[in-house]
Specification:
The complex is a heterodimer of chains A (260) and B (427). Chain A has two domains: 107 residues, ATPase, nucleotide binding domain (Nucleotidyltransferase, domain 5, 2-Layer Sandwich); 115 residues, ATPase, nucleotide binding domain (Nucleotidyltransferase, domain 5, 2-Layer Sandwich), CATH 3.30.420. Chain A is of the alpha/beta class and 260 residues long. Helix content of chain A is 39%, strand content 23%. Chain A starts with a strand and ends with a helix. In chain A, the strands form two sheets. Chain A has a five-stranded mixed sheet with strand order 3-2-1-4-5. A five-stranded mixed sheet of chain A has the order 8-7-6-9-10, sandwiched between helices. With 427 residues, chain B is an alpha/beta fold. A four-stranded parallel sheet of chain B has the order 2-1-3-4, with helices on both faces. In chain B, helix 14 links the parallel strand 5 and strand 6. The longest helix of chain B has 25 residues. The radius of gyration of chain B is 21 Å and the shape is globular. Classes of the chains: A alpha/beta (260), B alpha/beta (427). At the A-B interface, helix 2 and strand 8 of A face helix 19 of B.
Chain lengths: 260, 427
Amino acid sequence: MYTCGIDIGSVSTEVVLLESSNGSDAAKIFSYIISPTGANSKIAAEKTLEKACLQSGLGRDRIDAIVATGYGRINVPFADKNITEISCHARGAVSSFAGIKTVIDIGGQDSKVIKLEDGNPIDFLMNDKCAAGTGRFLEVMARALEIDLEHFTDIFLNTEGHVDISSTCTVFAESEIVSLIGQGVDKNKIIRGLIYSIVSKITSMVERIGLEEPVCMTGGVAKNLGVVKALEESLNIKINIPEEPQITGALGAAHLALDL
Amino acid sequence: MGVREKVKSNIQRNLDRKYFKRLLGIIAKKPILYAYGSTFSSISSKYLNIYSIKHIRDTYNGEKPVGFGSLFLPFELFHATGISPFLPEIIAGFTAGLGIADKTLKKASSNWYSQDLCTFHRSASGAVEMDLFPEPSFIICTNLACDAAQKSFYHYAHNYGIEKNYCLLDVPYENNPRSVKYLAGQLKRLAEKITASAGKKIDMESFADTIKLSNEFREWALKINNIRKKLLDYPPDFSGLDFILPFHGLMGTEGAVELYKNVYQELNALLAKQEENTDAGRRQPKRMLWMHLKPYYKNEIFETINDGNCQIVFEEINNIYWPRLDPEKPFESLALKMLSHPLTGKASDRTAALGRMADDYNIDGAILFTHWGCRQSNGSARIIKDYFKKRGIPVLVLDGDCVDKSNSAAGQIKTRLQGYIEILNSI
C-alpha cells in the first residue's frame, strides 16, 4: 500500500510517499519532495503532491491514505485526516531512529521540543510566538549579512570566537548586526554569535522539558551543521540527524496514515 | 441578526454609561428579560443571563450605593451592608465577550497602563477612564491572590475622587486563629464604615440572613458539583467557566440560590437521562480539569476539546473550598472563607486542592490557561505540572489572554490543544 504525508509549513511544504507491504516497521520512503509554500497553503499542498506523484510515477489514485500536518494542515481538503506536527515529528523521528526520547524540531517559523516514551509523545513545548530561535531568524540575518545561509556551517566550523547578539527580537537583532558590521566586527564572528543565540533558546526549551537521550533533531535548520554542533556542545550530547531532516513531519504523517 | 447580536452591536456603537443604564433598564424588565433569556438553549444559561443582567442593572440604576469589589472578596459583606457589588474584573471579561475590549484596552494603553498588566485590570481601567462603569461610593479590594487589583483599584478610587473610600482587606499568608481574628476585625470595621456612610449601624440580622443565603447557595453548588462527577452530556451552551459572576458577586443573594437551583435541576435531569441510556459501546471521553479562567471572546478552544473526544468535567474556579458559614459569627466566618481559599498562602495549598479535584472528578488530563500578566496563577505553572506529572496526569500549560484576543493566536492555541489531545488519547 501507499500512503502520503503532507507537511505544510510556513516556509516550505513537504510531501512524502511511503510504500509498505507489512505495516509501519517495513515501510520505505517511495518518494519525497520539498517545495516553497508561498502565499496559498491549499495550492501548495495540491501542487507538491502532484509533483511528488509525477516524480515517482505513482498515480494519485494508488495512494491509500493521506495525512496532513503543519500549520496549513486544515487547508488540505483531500487529506483523510489532519494530525498535529507534534505527533507527526515524533513519529517521523522514531521511524528514522528507534528509541528516540527527545525530538528537537527547528522549522521555518517555529521550534519545538517533544519528549517521547516508548515511541509516543508525552509532552512538548513550542515556540511559535516569535521568530527568535527559528529558521526565519537565520534567514533574516543571512540577508542582512549578505552571506548565503548555506555558508553558515563552514563559517561556524572554521571560525574561532564569536560576538554576543544581545537582542532577542529578530527585528532588533537585525539592527544590532547591521550596527556590528558598521563597527567593523568580523562577519564570521557575528554568524557564530547568531548560531549561539538560537542554540541558547533551544537549550532552554530542552532543559524546561527535561533532556533525555537519545535525541533527534528535525526540521530544515538541522541541515545546518553549525547549529547542530553548537547545540551538541551546549547540551553535551550527541544529536541524531535523519538523512533528510526537513521531511520528518511529512514522513511521520505518512507513517500515521498507515494506521487509518 | 439575532437579539443577542443586536444588543452587542448597539453596545459597540454606544459606548456610554448613560446608554448602558438605559439599555439595561429596558432589557431587565421582566417580559423582555425572560424573552432574552429564552434565546439561550439551556436553562442554566438562560438563568445565568437573567440573574447576571438583573444584577448589573441594579448597579447602574442608582437605587443603591455601588461598591467596586475585586474578585476574591466575600461579597456577602456587600449585600449585608446594602451596597450593590460591581466587579470590574468580571465586567472586563464581558468587554471581551461584547467585542469592546479593543477600545477599553486602547484607552488604558493611552493612559499609561503598562502592557504587561493583566488585561482584566487593563480593560477595566480603560472602561473607568471612558466612564463606562456605574459611579461607585466604595472601592474595596483584597490582596488575596491578585496583586494587580490593589494597585489598579486604588487608581479607580483616584479617578472617581473617592480615595477615602478605598479599602484594602489584608489577608494574612497563613490560615490560623490569629489570622481569622485579624481579618474578621478588618471585615467588621469595613462593614461599620459602609453602614456609617448611610448614617446607620451594622444590622446583624441582615448579616445573618445573607450568610444563610450564602450557605444555601453553597449547598446547591455542592449538589451541582456532585452531579458533575458523573455527568458527561452537558447542554451545548453550558460552560462552568461562565458562572464566575454569580459564584462571587451574587453569593448571599436569593438570585444566586435560585440560579443554582435551576442549574442543579437541569443537570440532574440530564444525569438521569444519561444513566437511563447507558450505551456500553459508547467511547468514554477523556476527562479534563480546567485551571484558571478562559478567553471570554469568541474562540475555538472548547470546540477543539470536544472534537477531540475530551470533556471539561470540572473547573478550578467552581471548587467549594470553604466550610459552612456561621450566621451568628459573620465576620469570623467570612474571614475563614477568605483564608481557606487555595490561592491564599503557599502554592502547595493550590496543588493540594487541585489534587482533591483530580480525585473527585477522576481526571485524565488538566489544562492550565496561563493568562497573560497573571502572576498569581502563572507563577505556579511549573509546580502544578510537576505535581500532576507525579500522578501520571499530563498537563497542558496553555499561554493566552482571557480578554485581549490580539494577544492570543488562535492557530497556535489550536495546535497546542490538538497536540495535547493526541497525547491524551494515545494514553
